[in-house]
């Protein structure tokens, strides 16, 4: 904090005696200018809050600290990441306005698109797209499709996940079945990384996982993914987007959008993108997520 009033003048003037009026004025203006430059964020400017779903890998705590610092430096305000164990918890925070932004799956975004605004979509392998992977243990060399796992134990990521529930459920509905009918038992792992771990560890005979997560794990933990085998990949869908809630005003949206779009323009930002296994962020039309909406309607129509 900086002194005010006469104390500020004394600190600025130091030991100068009988200064000229103009010199004193310039000294005072200099002090005021310096105080503006280094003044901390005021209490009235609350933190910018970003909700994160289990699309983030579980061991990225140190990375999130670095990313938060990067965003704070460029936004000039405090940033808070709020991680939750399920998509539903983050969705609730978003709909209640308890967070300003969220990195969500395209499925809940489509469901709540009237209340959530599309801000940006990540670029993966040069495109704003990803796929759902069907995986089995590496020792299983026979399974060729989801239908081959009838009567088995299957791991879903989250009931609000496109790649980790909606897409495989859609495939089964198209075959006249459902997860409840097709498998002996199903369970939710509440995270895509945990689906890979469950299948690799033999807790499930198959699982549905975000392809981006599996690919990223194959880079940082190849021993884990080597214990699984990709049976099939879905058609491409809109990558999990970053959305704005009703709590985020226009200024906050514009500022965060500009910072995220500019990450590829400086060395620190590029390094963070590399850690995320992303190429950057881009602006897309909401109809990129219409394919997920079609799956949702199809599944709902078969219930």
TrEMBL record:
Gene3D superfamilies (alphabetical): Periplasmic binding protein-like II
Alphabetical list of CDD domains matching this protein: PBP2_PnhD_1
Top-rank taxon, per record: Bacteria
Name recorded for this polypeptide: Phosphonate transport system substrate-binding protein
Species per Swiss-Prot/TrEMBL record: Natronocella acetinitrilica
Phylogenetic lineage: Bacteria, Pseudomonadati, Pseudomonadota, Gammaproteobacteria, Chromatiales
